[in-house]
Amino acid sequence: KRLKHLGLSLSEMMELEDLYRQYSDNRKVLPRLVQFFDEQLRRIDTRMENLRLLKSDILAYRERIVGKMGEG
Question: How far is Cα of residue 33 from the mean position of the Cα atoms in its chain?
Fold first, then answer.
């Protein structure tokens, strides 16, 4: 449940489970888990940048609208 909360997909969780079943050793599973976390962090960074750009666009558009309202 915690891995889902941290953003891992069902297929990623199943891959980790398969690795553990195959090797019965966390030392084989943990490096892959770190890779999943690194990928998730990159996705989060991308989403955050996209949201920052969207916020900037909205603020600029809002300013233009408010300016036009003051012209009338």
Answer: 15
Helices 26-71 and 10-23: crossing angle in degrees, nearest 10, is 170
pLDDT mean for each 10 residues of the chain (72 residues): 89 94 93 96 98 99 95 74
Amino acid identity of 29? V
Q: What pLDDT score was predicted for residue 72? A: 66
What string of H, E and C letters represents the secondary structure of 3-59?
A: HHHCCCCHHHHHHHHHHHHHHCCHHHHHHHHHHHHHHHHHHHHHHHHHHHHHHHHHH
Tokens of 47: 């989403």
DSSP classification of residue 72 = -
9 conformational bin, left if phi > 0, alpha if psi -120 to 50, beta if neither: beta
